[in-house]
Write a structure and sequence with these properties.
Elements: E1 4-8, H1 14-26, E2 29-32, H2 41-53, E3 71-77, H3 85-93, E4 100-107, H4 113-122, E5 129-134, H5 141-158
Parallel strand pairs: 1-2, 1-3, 3-4, 4-5
Bound molecules: flavin mononucleotide.
Flavin mononucleotide binds near residues 12, 48, 77 and 79.
């Protein structure tokens, strides 16, 4: 079992793709955060935005092996400049006190500043490293290099 766990939430696969690349670089374990609510289609999109704005509690359907880890990296899409409800649910269910917690996000151009500020407030010791990626593409060498550099930052933060 790796000292580093990557958990991610992804509605349309971009954050999953980034998480999988990062897991390969860091040789980390990776787990998907899943929730009961179906967020597919246009209605799913609209309700997701509303739920994120009001921080509506989500029901998780996944379990996570957080306890033995030194570091937890959380990946998520930006939803209305905020972390999605499933990520809030993960953070309220699992105690991350004493662990290094890093976060990455994918977005369409709004950036990750608001999301990281809001996430840092609900992580016991704040975020040790963050990375925001706009519309990441699986075959983009710039993304791969960005992730390699961020992986170095995470390893340093975890020393
Ligand atoms: C409900 C909702 C709200 C969103 N809000 C934002 C936003 O505030 N800023 C932004 O840049 N992108 C926003 N997006 C776009 C997603 O963050 C972006 O497409 C992301 O890469 C999707 O990741 P995924 O494929 O892992 O779900 C939003 C998407 C959804 C579904």
């Amino acid at each position: 079992m790796s000292d580093i766990l990557i958990v991610y939430y992804s509605r349309t696969g971009k954050t999953r793709m980034v998480g999988q690349k990062l897991a390969a670089i860091l040789d980390a374990d990776i787990e998907e955060i899943r929730e009961a609510k179906d967020r597919s289609g246009r209605m799913g999109w609209l309700i997701a935005g509303k739920d994120s704005l009001i921080a509506k509690p989500a029901e998780l359907t996944s379990e996570h092996s957080v306890e033995p880890r030194k570091a937890v990296i959380i990946g998520m899409p930006v939803w209305a400049n905020r972390p999605p409800p499933a990520v809030r649910a993960f953070l309220s269910r699992y105690d991350l006190a004493g662990k290094k917690v890093c976060a990455f996000c994918t977005h369409d151009g709004g950036g990750g500043k608001g999301l990281f500020a809001k996430t840092a407030k609900i992580v016991p010791d704040g975020l040790a490293a963050t990375l925001a990626m706009k519309k990441p593409k699986p075959d983009d060498p710039v993304l791969d290099e960005q992730l390699r550099q961020w992986a170095d930052e995470i390893r340093e933060a975890c020393e």
